[in-house]
Amino acid sequence: MLFRTVSPFLSIAQDSNRNLLGAAAGLLVALMVSATTLAQAAEPLKVLLIDGQNNHKWKETTPLIQQTLEGSGRFTVDVATSPAKGGDMSTFQPKFADYDVVVSNYNGEMWSEATREAFEKYVAGGGGFVAVHAADNSFPQWDAYNRMIGLGGWGGRNQNSGPYVRWRDGKVVRDTQAGRGGSHGRRHPFLVIVRDASHPVTKGLPSSWMQAQDELYAELRGPAVNMHVLATAMSDKSTGGTGEHEPILMAINFGNGRVFHTTMGHDAEAMSGIAFQVTLQRGAEWAATGEVTLPAVDEQTLTSDAPAKRDPASIGDASAVDFSKPPALDAAGWVSIFNGKDLTGWSQKNGTATYRVEDGVVIGKTAVGSPNSFMCSDKEYGDFELTFEVKVDKGLNSGVQIRSCSLPDYKNGRVHGPQVEIESAPGESGYIYSEGTGRGWISKTQPIKDAYQNDQWNRYLVRAVGERLQVWVNGKKVEDLTDAESSQKGFFGLQVHGIGKDQGPYEVRWRDIQVRELPAE
Questions:
Q1: How far is CA 180 from the centre of its chain?
Q2: Helix (H, G, I), strand (E, B), or coil: what is residue 398?
Q3: What range(s) does the 3-keto-alpha-glucoside-1,2-lyase/3-keto-2-hydroxy-glucal hydratase domain occupy (predicted)?
């Protein structure tokens, strides 16, 4: 039934008025074509997501795939569910031609001959196709399908199905040795390495990143015709793997159609990985259009030291934020932006205060005669939830900049923007000051003076969504305001305040700095 739910390439392919009128007409046509193209680009791409039989938990994962795609704002998704195993497959007749791309979350009985022919015609004619994880277990005896996906596993696949494809010594190799098709070791997080950074799917992504706990497919076999290996991962023997760099992301040409094949996405845990989500979104757009317009993703979002995760339901859904409660530290999507070892990803702006790292703590120390100093994140953030722990010496005023800027033509690069105050009690901790702008306090009333606990680590929670800013200190809500004047995107900055000649030295310490990016309101 059909229902609506709300490189390293491996290529084996074989008179004058009349002239003025003409020019004007040509220009008019060009403008009309351009306008049409722009209008089309603004329309969401139509996705048909197929499920219904799978030895994986498709009833759990289909909604996650749908949320991941629709959350990007680039797609609308319809779901086509096949009859259950043993049912009448002749009734399963999706209208492929009505869609820009088909995504398969299916691993089950063979489709009818008519449906197979319609699907082959659709893809060969220029339709897009995305195979997710166990979709490459499907249809071992369907020749065209195996050429679409490039490589597959299980279902009796062996050396007669085609070679293994691996990354060895800086290149893709075909291994024709005899053996089974398809295996995996224990589920675990693993590092994915981009092998073709020029392809639209991977262009603008970091060179490597961690995927959340998942099955790392290995020993896949198939025709591997017109197939580009975009990324691989080491199938480590210590996890029950092959000891080979196995393909994880692939792009295949089939006739005039494009196919994106990802082996990631075993279950809900795997689909919480930002690596899975980002590459699925980009791969689906490429399969549908031949290009990717989704924004680039940096290494602080696709992290390589630990898997970055988020709930697919929260992608693109600002309404998912519950402003009546503080940010939940056990929610998916939190990413550490301080590695605990050094200040990679941060750079100092203004002032001569010093910053060092000891025992997983950033320590800022005052310098006599210095203006305010800031250790600033290299990355900028828009809507987010932020948490950190802080301890400040008595006598020192400090703060954390949010959505802040440093511009050459504004006060010689002075850091400016909202600052969440840090100060010993009784004081203004948790209130918001407009640093460097001349506006003064954004928080016009400050009734709470004791949220900060002196001589202890203090947990801050900060939320910024659109014009709304909220702050909690040690679980106590200190501020909740709207501010239309401040920038809605910028860096974070750890401030060491300037001191007088006969003061200090003082220190301020930060640890456990994490951010959870939110979709724009």
A1: 34
A2: strand
A3: 333-516
- pLDDT for 314 beyond 80: no
Do residues 208 and 195 touch, judged by C-beta distance below 8 A? no
Q: For 2-313, CATH number? A: 3.40.50.880
| pLDDT single digits (tens) 9-23 | 343 333 334 343 344
pLDDT digits (tens, 9 = 90+) for 411-461: 989 999 999 999 999 999 999 999 999 999 999 999 999 999 999 999 999
Tokens for 203, please give them: 């262009």
Q: What is the C-alpha separation between 151 and 145, in angstroms, rounded?
A: 10
Domain ranges of the chain: 2-313, 319-517
Task: Indicate the helix (H) or strand (E) that contains 507.
Answer: strand 507-517
**Three-class DSSP labels, 156-216:** CCCHHHCCEEEEECCEEEEECCCCCCCEECCCEEEEEEECCCCCCCCCCCCCEEEEEEECC
Written as six digits, the tokens of 232 are 């691989």
Is the C-alpha dihedral spanning 198, 203, 204, 205 positive or negative?
negative
Angle, alpha carbons 177-179-183 (nearest 5°) = 125
Query: CA 350, CA 378: separation in Å to the nearest integer?
Result: 15
Q: Which residues pair with 390 in a beta bridge?
A: 458, 510
Q: Does pTM surpass 0.70? A: no
> 12, 502, 501: which is closest to 229 by C-alpha?
12
User: What digits encode the pLDDT tens for the residues 157-173?
Assistant: 999 999 999 999 999 99
Specify whether the CB–CB gap between 85 and 53 falls below 8 A: yes
Q: The domain 319-517: what is its CATH number?
A: 2.60.120.560
29-65 pLDDT, tens digit per residue, is 333 333 333 333 448 999 999 999 888 889 999 999 9
Rounded Cα distance between 6 and 9, Å, is 38
Which residue, among 103, 105, 53, has the nearest Cα to 83 in the 3D structure? 53
β-pair type (164-168, 227-234):
unpaired
- Calculate the alpha carbon distances from 377 to 77, 309, 371 in Å: 36, 20, 19
